[in-house]
Amino acid sequence: MQKKMVENKHLNSQFSLNSETKISVIDYDAKKFQEKEVKEIEECFHFKHTPSISWINVSGINQTEVIKQLDEHFGLHPLVLEDIKNLEQRPKIEDFGNYIYIAIRALHCNETTKEICSEQISIILGKNFVITFQTGKQKDIFEPIREKIRKNKGKIRKMQSDYLVYRIIDRIIEAYFDILENFGYEIEFLEEQLISNPNINTLGMLHNLKKEMIQIRRSIWPLREIIGSLERGESSLVKRTTRVYLRDIYYHTVQLVDNIETSRDILSEMIDVYLSSINNKTNEIMKVLTIIATIFMPLTFLAGMYGMNFKYFPEIYWKYGYLLFWIIVIVVVVSMLFYFKRKKWV
Amino acid sequence: MQKKMVENKHLNSQFSLNSETKISVIDYDAKKFQEKEVKEIEECFHFKHTPSISWINVSGINQTEVIKQLDEHFGLHPLVLEDIKNLEQRPKIEDFGNYIYIAIRALHCNETTKEICSEQISIILGKNFVITFQTGKQKDIFEPIREKIRKNKGKIRKMQSDYLVYRIIDRIIEAYFDILENFGYEIEFLEEQLISNPNINTLGMLHNLKKEMIQIRRSIWPLREIIGSLERGESSLVKRTTRVYLRDIYYHTVQLVDNIETSRDILSEMIDVYLSSINNKTNEIMKVLTIIATIFMPLTFLAGMYGMNFKYFPEIYWKYGYLLFWIIVIVVVVSMLFYFKRKKWV
Amino acid sequence: MQKKMVENKHLNSQFSLNSETKISVIDYDAKKFQEKEVKEIEECFHFKHTPSISWINVSGINQTEVIKQLDEHFGLHPLVLEDIKNLEQRPKIEDFGNYIYIAIRALHCNETTKEICSEQISIILGKNFVITFQTGKQKDIFEPIREKIRKNKGKIRKMQSDYLVYRIIDRIIEAYFDILENFGYEIEFLEEQLISNPNINTLGMLHNLKKEMIQIRRSIWPLREIIGSLERGESSLVKRTTRVYLRDIYYHTVQLVDNIETSRDILSEMIDVYLSSINNKTNEIMKVLTIIATIFMPLTFLAGMYGMNFKYFPEIYWKYGYLLFWIIVIVVVVSMLFYFKRKKWV
Amino acid sequence: MQKKMVENKHLNSQFSLNSETKISVIDYDAKKFQEKEVKEIEECFHFKHTPSISWINVSGINQTEVIKQLDEHFGLHPLVLEDIKNLEQRPKIEDFGNYIYIAIRALHCNETTKEICSEQISIILGKNFVITFQTGKQKDIFEPIREKIRKNKGKIRKMQSDYLVYRIIDRIIEAYFDILENFGYEIEFLEEQLISNPNINTLGMLHNLKKEMIQIRRSIWPLREIIGSLERGESSLVKRTTRVYLRDIYYHTVQLVDNIETSRDILSEMIDVYLSSINNKTNEIMKVLTIIATIFMPLTFLAGMYGMNFKYFPEIYWKYGYLLFWIIVIVVVVSMLFYFKRKKWV
Amino acid sequence: MQKKMVENKHLNSQFSLNSETKISVIDYDAKKFQEKEVKEIEECFHFKHTPSISWINVSGINQTEVIKQLDEHFGLHPLVLEDIKNLEQRPKIEDFGNYIYIAIRALHCNETTKEICSEQISIILGKNFVITFQTGKQKDIFEPIREKIRKNKGKIRKMQSDYLVYRIIDRIIEAYFDILENFGYEIEFLEEQLISNPNINTLGMLHNLKKEMIQIRRSIWPLREIIGSLERGESSLVKRTTRVYLRDIYYHTVQLVDNIETSRDILSEMIDVYLSSINNKTNEIMKVLTIIATIFMPLTFLAGMYGMNFKYFPEIYWKYGYLLFWIIVIVVVVSMLFYFKRKKWV
User: Which of A36, A83, A216, E241 is a good FRET partner for A58, with 20 to 30 A between their CA atoms?
Assistant: First the structure.
């Protein structure tokens, strides 16, 4: 079933159905290490039978044929094939007994445009192999892990395939923290702008940020369930020693959810502050208008009245008429100001 | 019990109580395949006893008698009969031991009017038969499944009746995704309009979209429970091999719920943006009004004053009176502009 | 404990403590049927010992003595007596082992005033008897059930006392659906009014409807728990065959809750639409005011200025002074309109 | 640990650390009854060993020494001592095996000021004794219970200590219902005021009521848990016969929560109604202002224009100039009114 | 994994990676007591093997080497080392069998700036040792506990290491109550200001307070889970006698959550009150403006009209023209006032 999705542009996942497929294999155990790029998918089939850990990374998933061959050779369920191809899936985990399928969304922040893109990563965890599928359009975020394996840093070479999967997920979560850190900076920047020079653009940016958070949240929430079920799960593929690491990244995802919810609350609060200040300003402006109008309208009427051309118009012939006019003006202004004072408008 | 319902017009379910009833039967197993339209309901009774899978589709449910006969022949509970006839039911699942009753709402998007209609589909899953009931007013959405059975595509002919039900529900969910995809396009369109030329119509469309989402959500939420309980349920009618497929569409419904909730959040956000911008505009307009009034009201008073007809009015006889007038005008204007500048109104 | 309640007027429950008590008894089994009105409560005591189902309906509960006698004769707990007398209870169910006490709120819609009243119905389900208590101020809604028993329609005469209770609750729920259907019509009516001629009354009606929903919701939510616990409960009074019927009305209450929540969401949405449109209108009005003021204030100043009476006032002696005045006027008007055009105000 | 609390003034709990301590003891069983006020706490120690139920009520808890002696004699945990002294606790229940400690908040409504005060009541339920601690600043609400014991009304003398605790809690809950009833009256009063003469004070009172509800809710919510855990708890101190009574007051607390939530929803609704009406009024006022300004501003300009003193001003010498002026005035007014009519402003 | 965090400035946790590390050891049991500051971490290793309780407090965690040595000597998991170093963790608890790791956030209120800072405290609870890690930038809040141990006050010297951890957490929670108490005072202050002299600053302070609460809530919520799981947990490190104390502080955290949620509700309510009053004031101001404009605009037009210079202008030559003018003025004013009276604007 070809699933079509409601996805807004901001997190546009890269459909890379016509990019080239690159397949790289890393085969390692505590003692030996082998890495190669393969052209033909068949080249990596024999790794299934080696006791060492084999990590097959498929980047660019346009060649359905390649995936199909992999699937068949490693005895995967047809639904997994479909899930790998469907790039707009909700993150999920599925335990098929002798292997576990994990779909996860990785976030990338475009360095230049500052746009955030999401990409689906499919992971298959078998007894002594791990297969990962990337779209290939984004920067490969697994390079640091490969580096660790190559240089035999940390305990990765001593551990099983489940630890490698932990490392992969950990790497993806780290990228989330980077994105959220950027959000944090943006929120701080907007907070300062809100104090120094609030305008309609600040509001627009606040709303945009909030909308992006709504979108990102969709990728983070299921992550928590996935790692939680991986850690608690009864699969024999996940060793007891690895569980403690999974519990660790589980807490990280809880923290991610926490951060994003707090940030949303704070953004809502900031938008409220802006709107309140607009309301307040309108009130201020109305006061000025009303004060001016209330003072000058009666005066203008008065001036207009003494400008009338009636033939029988006694006041204008009085000697102190003009003086009287000014006395009335001053009385009106003073009493109005007094009235505004009492109303606390000035 | 004849249930009457609170249902708004937008998702008006088609009461087709006077349309004609069409009954079609498909009988298949891995090797043979038979399809026919029957006039008399009795013609399909013998299919109950064949070991092959029989799919009886009743379209148009006005002939209560037909449903009753079917019910009686297949030994269904009287409540099931009522549920099939009640076209405004909340989606539900009921396990009666030797058969399972499922009521589901299918969504159709009218190609021309773009209106969304919902229709109740009743499904009865028995050991080697499946009975489906449609209102018959909408396009038959099961044709692709029939095509698969006819051409023996995929594994449908090799599987049992539960797999057929999975295929039917999967087809209905696919239609939901199509609808949501359309919503996605509409949201994008409105988002662009909100930036380029926001007006009261944009707001109306946003509110309409949100209202439609509230309605659709009612059909989607129970779907999740239904498929979840079908998958976890202990009915012997649902085979282990089918469960993995049910789990797959279970995740699809979770994704549907996710999408609809995210879309609602985004719509709310967009409505807020529009309202904020209106508030801001009113503020802008008030500023212009106040600036104009504050500048010209004192000046008009001044002009009116020098237009008074007092006989004893020294200033108007001064040689530089008119010049003085202009000096006062300029001083007033400049000081006002200075005041507005400080208030950041200009 | 005499409980006093916070209850708003809209759903004013009828305190009928001084209406007359009417006691009617129906005694039936599959073969025989007997119905009578009794004057003295003692007359219905012997029904307790008959193997046939006895339905004692007490309407008007002012005669505490009557209730007390019934309670004592049927061996009810003192708390049940209090619960029956307390007419403002939250719907609840209590299993006392050899009988079950159920308190439920029935809604009545006054035909003439369209006001909704609620009434407490107390039901006691025993092994072969059912006692119901009504306030007696409202129309007796159980008549259709009696009719069914009298005419031996359906399977009610063949079933036990638990089926009778199912029928009674089913009847009450049906009334809820009627009320909600009316709400549906009102919402549709208001929706049309909102489009054609929105005014402050529409808003008031929307708010009233929402307030009524908040009140009704209080009666519906506990209903779900009650029926759920009756169906799942382990009481031997509820037979397996009846459970499927209870599950059916359980789904109806879920649907009721669903409908009322969706209606509330839609009402909130409609109120938002109205308020948005008010905001928009104010903005429109402000624009008109500002445009008029911005055009005519400078012009009025100009006219006022040339009305000044300065002796040394060169312009007014110019031959083309008046023409110049008009040229200035036109330039001001045109440039203002141009400014408004650019601001998209006209 | 001396806990300090965030508590707003409205529900100011009475710190009575310098009031006098009064200790009263009631000792009873089905046959005998004894009541006395004691000066020295030692006087009531021997009641611990009598098989009859002893109710020791300590009012005014300033004499820490007294509490300490009681605690030690009855073998209470040091934490209980601290909890009794800490008057700002969240309601809680703690089962210590051979006794149960319950802290609850009682609400009092000051008759004259209509202010609501809350007071902490600590209850210790032992095998054959009950100790209660009051602050002593409020009216003693337990008098009706003592009266029942003295006059041997109801079954209280025949029951154990757990029934006495039930009675005490029941008495406290009754006070809550009284408070909520008062709220109900206030809401009704405000609802009428909102229709007849809404003003800023009405709004203030609505907000105050809502704030008081937020505060009271804090006392009610934990109550539900407390009674629920007392009823379901496995303590041998709570007899089976008492559980049915506890279940009864459990339902009362559920009803309290229900009432307070519904009241809050209704208050929010009423505040919305008020704000909507303010919005509407502002809109109405703006219309009047705009209509007046739009009509008279052009006219004033016209009049000002014909008051100009240009020497070369042909119109003013025309015979029908003045008539023409009036014709223009009428045309302007009529066309403006026509425009407003079309805009539905008049 | 070096985690970077979204943390707003208000609760800026002090990165003290270059402050000096101070290590202090307290070794005690019921009879003996020993306290010393150590320079070299090796000096406190032998305490691990003493049967007495050893409390090692590390303040300033810049010397990764020190932590590493401690970790290795006490056999801690590498992840614990990372968690101690990562100062922006979400509070968490992790049971490693023979020791428990707890990360908690302590709040400090800067005496002078009134700013609230948060600091991560890491606690390791072993069989007969407790290790705590502080950043060292804040005031050491554990001094009162040390004092209790030194002077053998209370039962701390008689209890095990789990009781010491209880005391440490209790101390941290106490600080939370202090902070919330300050919030309470601020809310009261703002409430008074809101009544006496509401202005935009009051609103700003309300919003700031609410934002701070959102941040603090993040530290408090997980606290509840931590203490709950510590109390319910099955670790043999936590003795039965200590559980009752843990349950006590568990209730304190519930109360903290309660207080913070109630305070947030009240703050929201207060902000609503302020905004309503602004809305109301704008309405009031608009009324004044409209009344003034509606009265004086027609009058000014009238005066302007009689100032026109038409040659043929009959009225101005009438004897009672001027009198008539005043009659018209009075009629206009009175009828306008009457109109406003009916509209309830004055």
Answer: A216
